[in-house]
Amino acid sequence: MKPIQVGLLGIGTVGSGTFNVLQRNQEEIRRRAGRGIQITMVADLDVARARAVVGEGVAVVSDAREVIANPDIDIVIELIGGYGIAKALVMEAISAGKHVVTANKALLAVHGTEIFAAASARGVIVAFEAAVAGGIPIIKALREGLSANHIEWIAGIINGTTNFILSEMRDKGLDFEVVLKEAQRLGYAEADPTFDIEGVDAAHKATIMSAIAFGIPVQFDKAHVEGITKLSATDIRYAEQLGYRIKLLGITKRAPKGIELRVHPSLVPAKRLLANVEGAMNAVVVHGDAVGTTLYYGKGAGSEPTASAVIADLVDVTRLHTADPHHRVPHLAFQPDAMSDLPVLPMSEVVTSYYLRMRVADEAGVLAKVTGVLALNGISIDAVLQREADEVGGEGATSTDLIILTHDTREGTMDKVLAELQALPTVLSPIVRIRKEELR
Ligand code: HSE
């Protein structure tokens, strides 16, 4: 059978990796897919760069629409990124009857509902393994491998840049800004790192996982998104003393009244595998009722790791190309007419535990006042750490750090309690609140 023909839109880091791995492993890939898979056309604004990667024998154009218009192309790989032109091109490719493979988490987290509906109506596949956690086949695992399960929660380190920064902050005792500059110098963080450090990239990925795990539409606008820019080396150190590491987690969880969907720094017990994922690596923990807890670990970015996921999608699409669309795996794991209307809960309804750090006057009764406010609001304390004033502020210091770990409580209750605590005259600076996940 003649090879399936693929058009590639954008040949940067991941595109080059995809081209190279497809070439290198073409024979094995053909034996798996049942026919050859060939990139025969590439569109990139930098035609010279594209030509340098693909050599002769592949059509190189600057206009992506030429690829979409080519009747010989069966699959379009979109590696442009973002919500702008990428969205227009994906929608045009779908309407031209092409299958689409994309690594674009932002696009799917925000516009997935429209894109998947258009693809289903046109009978084509939109495959996106590379959109979440790079080379880790987490979409495949969630959508197919775990399809027997009532999934209860997912917690993941799904942004390598921030995990690298947090690892460095812990190892070297340095503050965020210092490590960010170093990460940019080493190429671990982009010149504009906003999407990574503010948690947006992780929230895009968590949004996609929440949809597949719980059969709800993608709802990025309902996600709680908090990055790592306000984390200090002090909190990383105190957390360590209490037996925890701080990680930026993407969490989605089934709760009695809806689905939690949130990204924020979290204390994780140091003994958990997730707490020991270091540097730019990614890891996702999924808890299902039948399987229990499962862990997926690997490279979440990079040229060939991400290409690994893109090509796995190409193989899937090639195998399914001639299948009745009804026999394909639904885009979001659940059949489109069997989606759930469970709401994504507002953050005030989320239940979790907390790390609180406050600078307090070092005088009689302060601890009692603070714990009294917690008790009055029904919040149970898990641990307390109080440093000697001298240790924190130097000899003769009259204030010290008080750190409290709580048991589970509603975020709305914690907001109220923090306002009450902050108003105490003996609480001397803004209280630091970091959520804590035991991941049992
Ligand atoms: N910028 C992402 C990260 C990789 O740092 O993990 C692509 O999603």
TrEMBL record:
Protein's GO biological process: methionine biosynthetic process; threonine biosynthetic process
Q: Which PROSITE patterns match?
A: ACT, HOMOSER_DHGENASE
Report the residue ranges that make up the ACT domain in this protein. Answer: 355-435
Any idea which residues are catalytic in this one? K205
- Residues recorded as binding L-homoserine, renumbered to this chain, are E190
Give the SUPFAM superfamilies listed for this entry.
ACT-like (SSF55021), Glyceraldehyde-3-phosphate dehydrogenase-like, C-terminal domain (SSF55347), NAD(P)-binding Rossmann-fold domains (SSF51735)
Sorted UniProt keywords: Amino-acid biosynthesis, Methionine biosynthesis, NADP, Oxidoreductase, Threonine biosynthesis
According to the UniProt entry, its GO molecular function terms are:
homoserine dehydrogenase activity; NADP binding
Question: How is this protein named in the record?
Answer: Homoserine dehydrogenase
Q: Source species, please?
A: Hydrogenophaga intermedia
Query: In the record, what lineage is assigned to the organism producing the protein?
Result: Bacteria, Pseudomonadati, Pseudomonadota, Betaproteobacteria, Burkholderiales
